[in-house]
Amino acid sequence: MADTAAQGDQSRFTRTVLRALREAAVIVTGVLALTLAAALITYDPRDPGFSFTGEGSAEIGNLIGRRGAWLADTLLFLFGFPAALFPVMLAASCWLMFRTRDEDEEPASRANTLVRAGGFVLLLASSCALATLHWPPGVLRQSAGGVIGGLVGDWMRANFNFVGATLLLLATTMVGIALA
Fold first, then answer.
1. What is the spatial distance between Cα 134 and Cα 7, in angstroms, rounded to a whole number?
2. Structure pTM?
3. Terminus-to-terminus CA distance in the chain, angstroms?
């Protein structure tokens, strides 16, 4: 009888700890999503970052500061405008963790997590390529799809022409959304 009560207490303790860890992960992920979104939204091409040393001004235009300017510049250099998918992905994972806070639901399996991550990579690569094919770079130093979009988009255009590349990339984007 004492063993059953001890097992019940340990099980309740384990559930409480797991719940607290999940709640902490939701908070941290949510704050990271908001921070990354703020860094990307307040990107200023004059700020020092990965691809530019700055104009000598001591004032940083990015809301998150020097680290935010560097992070935004790096993500926009590599992925272009689709870098906005990163805070969206973090917010979606935050929502999924929050939604599965009940003890009755099983946690996501590793295979499920791997499929979702692969879907996100597919979505990101195809979005970068589409951005490169269809939009001007604007304030970005690379194409609208960044370095990744330049590589994938130029390869797709060279092999499938503009219309074929666009149709294949739209299909790939939809598959990436479905998997992610």
1. 61
2. 0.82
3. 47
Closest CA to 133 of 175, 76, 80, 75: 80
Question: Are 179 and 116 spatial neighbours (Cβ–Cβ below 8 Å)?
Answer: yes
Stated as kind and residue range, the H or E segment containing 152 is helix 146-179
Cα 63 to chain center, whole Å?
Answer: 19
Reported as type and span, the H/E element at residue 49 is none
Coil/strand/helix, residue 107:
coil
Judge whether 94 and 123 are in contact, CB under 8 Å.
no
Residue 19: how many other CB atoms lie within 10 Å: 13
pLDDT (0 to 100) of residue 157 = 96
Q: At what angle do helices 66-79 and 146-179 cross, to 10 degrees?
A: 80
| pLDDT of res. 104 | 53
Q: What single string gives the DSSP state of each residue in 29-44?
A: HHHHHHHHHHHHHT--
pLDDT along the chain (180 residues), means of 10: 62 83 92 97 89 73 92 94 95 86 64 92 96 91 91 96 96 95
Spatial separation of the C-alpha atoms in residues 128 and 133, rounded to whole Å? 9
Q: Which two tokens stand for residue 22?
A: 């999940």
SS3 content of the chain, % helix, strand, coil (to 5): 75, 0, 25
Determine the Cα–Cα distance for residues 170 and 129; give it in Å rounded to an integer: 10
